[in-house]
Specification:
mainly alpha, 3 helices, single chain
Length: about 150
């Protein structure tokens, strides 16, 4: 694609050069009077051509700057989204680890206090912990879906 673009640019530059050189009255024939900011001048056809070439080149530079800035901004935005997703995943993992440790600590305290461990109570505590983890996971997924829009 770059090769085709380069060939196109070189071909058009050659065509413009041939048209520029073959026109004998290029810098002697007036293109008419032009008034700009209160000043009047009479450019030749060649001068109008050169001014148009310069304006086109500046336009292309402006487009290049516009699209390169937009691309850079999109890359930054994507990096920020990835970082946010990584932080949320880490936060969710830490919450799960905290809940697991808290459940184990509560079980150890209950065992240390001489309370009889009823298997149903232990199972109910684990089920409550699992439900809380599932709820936290669903909330984190919903937050992630909202943040990527």
């Amino acid at each position: 694609m770059m090769l085709l673009g380069l060939l196109l640019v070189l071909g058009l530059a050659g065509l413009a050069l041939v048209a520029f050189m073959d026109n004998d009255g290029l810098f002697t024939t007036s293109a008419g009077a032009v008034e700009l900011f209160g000043y009047t001048f009479s450019p030749t056809v060649g001068e109008v051509f050169l001014i148009g070439t310069a304006a086109g080149a500046l336009f292309l530079v402006g487009l290049f700057m516009l699209f390169s800035g937009a691309g850079r901004r999109a890359r930054r935005r994507m990096a920020a989204r990835r970082e946010l997703a990584a932080q949320r995943a880490e936060n969710l993992a830490l919450k799960r680890k905290h809940d697991t440790i808290a459940t184990e600590l509560a079980a150890q305290r209950a065992a240390g206090a001489g309370a009889a461990e009823d298997p149903r109570e232990v199972e109910a505590a684990r089920a409550a912990r699992d439900a809380k983890l599932a709820r936290d996971g669903a909330e984190a997924e919903a937050d992630e879906r909202l943040s990527t829009r």
